[in-house]
Amino acid sequence: MREVGWAMVEGILAGMKPSVKEERIDFGKIHTRWNVVEEEKKLGLKPEDLVKDLMPTAEPFKSIAEAVFKGDATKVESLVNEAIKKIPAKELVDKALAPGMQAVTKLYEDGIYYLPQVMLAADAMQAGINVLEKATGGKLEKKGKVVMHVAEGDIHDLGKNLAKVFLIADGWEVVDLGRDVPVDEVVKAVEEHKPVMVTGTALMTTTMTAFPKIAQKLVEKGLNIPFVCGGGAVNEDFVQQFPLGIIGKKAHQAPKYAEAAAKKISWEEIRRRWHEIAPV
Ligand code: B12
């Protein structure tokens, strides 16, 4: 019976024209959420129509921003390679790469885009940044440094990676220590890199206990910078139990916290006013 079933399936597949097979697996649509498609049908609006105001209209900025928005790293790379011959690197970041990514960030904040679209756009933006880094000999201007890590014993790094994307898109230099990072390594990196803020992500109740230890050691060394803690295991009550701790509920808050830290707003004030400083 099973053999007859397989023979039938194979027969059907063998009889398919190549065009029919191609239609069944359309990789171009893999990252398009079904409800985005459904909303497009109902409202007649595409996601890009919702962020028109954020996108540049002049070339070559327009095409580069659109390629970032669509997560097309190859296209971004070739367009930026061409544009850098005539336009300064900073202008390309401010008028093309950043707006493309900001448009994706807006759709993510509004719950229209999800993780895959953000990650694809981030890769595309990074491809453009790599071209510019090379062209400027690594002297691309940054707003300041942020040290990021995932707690010791924890390998859940999606939230940290997402927050990193938003920081890079906003012009921050990220020192990414990765995941399962020992307490002392985080403290050492803060001493060495002198960032405006440090972040931690913990998804497990067993690993979030690293954060008070890090905070204590930073305070002992006089490194009183905001320590933004995110991850499913962490809540506001927890971060208020140790010095420096500030709640990171959503990844897109990260650049707003960094801006506040760079303005030398104290961690106590950021903790108190986080709803205003970095609304979710
Ligand atoms: C994906 C996943 C995995 C993946 C991780 C892949 C990866 N590279 O991250 C894999 C399969 C590897 C995995 C492994 C394990 N997992 Co797991 N996993 C999950 C799962 C399903 C989703 C977590 C996730 O990525 N969420 C999405 C991200 C984006 O969310 P997030 O990190 O919280 O980030 C958001 C915010 O917190 C915030 N944020 C985070 N960081 C930062 C930083 C800043 C600066 C800011 C501003 C904001 C911010 O922004 C994000 C939103 O915008 C959860 C269940 C769940 N539904 O949550 C379990 C879960 C976290 N896992 C769990 C467990 C137990 C494990 C394992 C121990 C299983 C095992 N027995 O082997 C191992 C862990 C091994 C280890 N040592 O870490 C438990 C933890 C229980 C607990 N409370 O302690 C959970 C809750 C499942 C469960 N219900 O039991 N897991």
Q: How is this structure best described in words?
A:
There is one protein chain. Strands 2-1-3-4-5 form a 5-stranded parallel sheet, sandwiched between helices. The protein contains 15 helices and 5 strands. Strand 1, helix 9 and strand 2 (173-176) form a beta-alpha-beta unit. The chain has 280 residues and is α/β, with parallel strands linked by helices. The longest helix is centred in the middle third of the chain and has 21 residues, at 89-109. It starts with a helix and ends with a helix. It has 2 domains: 33-135, Methionine synthase domain (Methyltransferase, Methionine Synthase (B12-binding Domains), Chain A, domain 1, Orthogonal Bundle), CATH 1.10.1240.10; 145-277, Cobalamin-binding domain (Rossmann fold), CATH 3.40.50.280. The protein has helices spanning 2-15, 18-24, 34-43, 47-50, 61-69, 73-83, 89-109, 115-135, 158-169, 183-193, 210-220, 236-239, 254-262, 267-272, 274-277; strands at 145-150, 173-176, 197-201, 227-230, 245-248. The chain binds cobalamin.
